[in-house]
Specification:
The protein is an alpha/beta fold. It has one domain: 3-Layer(aba) Sandwich (Rossmann fold), CATH 3.40.50. Helix content is 39%, strand content 23%. The strands form 2 sheets. Strands 2-1-3-6-7 form a 5-stranded parallel beta sheet, sandwiched between helices. The longest helix has 12 residues.
Length: 120
């Protein structure tokens, strides 16, 4: 099974995403980004699903940190957020895709399948 790391500081959203994906993927929730590199090392996901704001940190800073390590540089990530400029932020940080909150589970599944190359 493919592994997805969900970086989301809203516990309820993280739990909902985990429950929605758990039948098809191995899912790990990270509620804060201070130990993102350790989580990547321990879990080595096939995809990162990341909110734009994680506590005091923003996705561009977190992505720079991740991409500074050769081992994790090519892990695709999906940015998801209610930020009004989510599309621009996703483009600026070279996200594989983005989802504007609120999103449907159908959109979530479709996005993940597309990024992971699982669509028929």
């Amino acid at each position: 099974m493919k592994k997805i790391l969900v970086v989301e500081d809203d516990f309820d959203i993280g739990l909902t995403v985990e429950m929605a994906l758990a039948d098809q993927y191995v899912v790990k929730i990270l509620n804060e980004a201070s130990h993102i590199i350790r989580a990547l090392h321990d879990f080595l996901p096939d995809l990162i699903l990341m909110d734009n704001s994680i506590g005091q940190r923003e996705a561009p800073e977190i992505v720079r940190e991740i991409k500074s390590f050769d081992t994790y540089r090519n892990i695709p990530f999906v940015l998801f957020s209610a930020h009004p400029d989510i599309e621009k932020i996703a483009d600026d940080i070279l996200a594989s895709a983005y989802l504007a909150k609120p999103f449907s589970l159908e959109d979530l599944y479709s996005c993940i399948e597309g990024v992971l190359g699982l669509k028929n």
